[in-house]
Design a protein that fits this description.
By secondary structure, the protein is of the alpha/beta class. The chain has 18 helices and eleven strands. The strands form three sheets. Strands 1, 2, 3, 4, 7, 8 and 9 form a seven-stranded mixed sheet that branches. A two-stranded antiparallel sheet has the order 5-6. Strands 10-11 form a two-stranded parallel ribbon. The chain starts with 5 loop residues before the first strand and ends with a helix.
Length: 514
């Protein structure tokens, strides 16, 4: 392949996970062909994160650039000062993200004109990436919608945002597109009809839908199942498009649909993702080098001393509870429940990353030996009663080979005051991220109460921090999330794992090189 740059158009970009992974791909000569020309995102905090990362990519190889970036993320330099030191790169980053949050369907004049402008001066290949917002497709979103009076799927425009994706395909006519969404898109219905076959049909011929003449069609490929006929790929089971991220080096049981579209005049067939060993992807291996933190109190005055006293009392209660439900004294004593001394709720200090348990190649992808700090690593507050429940969950998991307790496993004294607690309807209302397993799916719900994302260490009694969630989502440690903590959680939960996106990018590069 010549050193032609590949123009990347990133739609519904979120904080930039898909773009981060694809733009990181290099040729054997060390050249980075994928260049993001435009990233479209409407949520203000995600847009700010997106701009910060675009700036990072532009200054990381510039003398002094990374030092200034590190000063910014450590809080030693404000954003205005950072951008002032690198005016050219900051202007390029701001332009790349369209200078402000924008939404497809609402700001099409701005978005489409920028895309047309980029195409007019670009002679190499083009790739469109992104996934329409998933709330209308996700199983959780559909459950919430079912409870809304007068809700009708056919009136929910989020079901049809993929049509905006089609408009961009018709304009850009990229050689390749990558479209990502939740697994719920496979079964989502409108007017009683499953939408996915219609979405595939429309993606194969976007010009027919958008009424654009002279628009080429696309062959749609799975990234995990090889088609019987590569020239006319058909898949008998829609689940053939489902990617189980834990099979591809991501320490998380995240199952997502990714479609790879190849323009019909491209005489090449894409490869598929290569499965990797999952044995080293346990949560403890991925997070163990990050500093221990204490949680806080959400309903009462908070202090390290009060927290330590409370956790010491809880530790003794927990020992008695575990023995009362049948565990031996030896089993309970093996847990070491005494609190750590002097824990803080926030830490920027990093342990020596040389002793990280993360296996390669994920280790090199995540860690930055020059960062010398931890970003977005701060705990939230919890109710005092939940701290004991969190400790129970973590201890139970350790005693049961990584199994998280269901509601039936909780002793009565730890049962929350929920009417449906014993019905089994919400049996896993509290879920620990077990140390010896991949995490469950990191979702935007982590911004709510943290009950589904309990840390595996019973001595910390807390939910995961933004950085820990970002690690499990495979965002590099130097990836800085803007906004308040709740907004950061939402960004991480909604993102595509960059490490998976990098592998997809390699397949795209091989295809374009054929």
């Amino acid at each position: 392949m010549t050193k032609d740059e590949v123009l990347v158009i990133d739609l519904f970009a979120g904080p930039g996970g898909l773009g981060e992974g694809i733009s990181s791909v290099e040729t054997s000569e060390g050249f980075s062909p994928f260049k993001i020309g435009v990233s479209v995102e409407k949520e203000p905090c995600a847009h700010k994160t997106l701009t910060t990362r675009a700036f990072f990519r532009k200054i990381k190889n510039k003398e002094g650039g990374l030092d200034d970036y590190y000063s910014y993320v450590r809080g030693e330099l404000d954003r205005k000062g950072l951008f002032a030191r690198h005016p050219t790169e900051s202007e390029e980053a701001i332009r790349e993200t369209l200078e402000k949050p924008t939404a497809l369907g609402e700001d099409n004049n701005i978005i489409h004109e920028r895309i047309k402008s980029l195409i007019s001066v670009h002679n190499g290949p083009k790739v469109v990436i992104g996934g329409p917002p998933c709330q209308a497709y996700s199983l959780a979103g559909r459950s919430r919608n079912a409870g809304k009076k007068d809700y009708k799927a056919e009136n929910d425009n989020r079901h049809f945002l993929y049509l905006e994706y089609l408009k961009v395909l018709a304009i850009a006519q990229p050689e390749v597109f990558v479209m990502e969404n939740v697994r719920g898109i496979l079964s989502a219905k409108v007017n009683g009809k499953v939408m996915f076959p219609s979405i595939l049909k429309d993606l194969r011929n976007p010009g027919k839908v958008t009424k654009e003449r002279h628009t080429k069609g696309y062959k749609i490929y799975s990234l995990v199942v090889k088609p019987e006929n590569p020239n006319n790929p058909q898949y008998p089971d829609s689940s053939d498009f489902l990617i189980r991220c834990e099979n591809y080096g991501v320490p998380q049981a995240r199952h997502r649909v990714i479609l790879l579209g190849v323009r019909e005049d491209i005489d090449a067939t894409p490869g598929t993702l290569c499965e990797s060993d999952k044995t080293s992807l346990g949560v403890k291996n991925i997070l163990d080098d990050l500093p221990e933190l204490r949680s806080g109190f959400s309903k009462k005055p908070d202090s390290p001393v009060h927290w330590g006293e409370t956790i010491s009392t809880h530790a003794e209660q927990l020992r008695n509870i575990l023995i009362s439900v049948g565990y031996t004294s030896e089993q309970v004593e093996s847990l070491d429940l005494a609190p750590y001394p002097g824990l803080q709720r926030k830490s920027t200090e990093h342990r020596d990353i040389r002793f990280s348990r993360i296996s390669e190649p994920l280790k090199s992808w995540l860690l930055d030996k020059n960062l010398n700090c931890v970003l977005n690593h701060e705990t939230r507050g919890h109710m005092e009663s939940d701290l004991l429940r969190y400790a129970f969950c973590a201890a139970y998991s350790q005693l049961n080979n990584g199994v998280s307790p269901k509601s039936k496993d909780f002793p009565d004294e730890l049962a929350p005051e929920h009417a449906n607690w014993k019905t089994g309807t919400h049996a896993d209302r509290f879920r620990v991220q077990s140390s010896n397993k991949c995490s469950t799916t990191i979702t935007s719900h982590i911004s709510k109460d943290g009950h589904y994302f309990i840390h595996y260490d019973p001595k910390q009694c807390r939910s995961l921090t933004v950085r820990e969630a970002a690690r499990l989502q495979t965002f590099p440690d130097n990836y800085y999330f803007e906004g308040n903590r709740t907004q950061q959680y939402v960004q991480v939960g909604n993102a595509v794992p960059p490490f998976l996106a990098r592998q997809v990018g390699k397949i795209v590069l091989e295809l374009l090189s054929a």
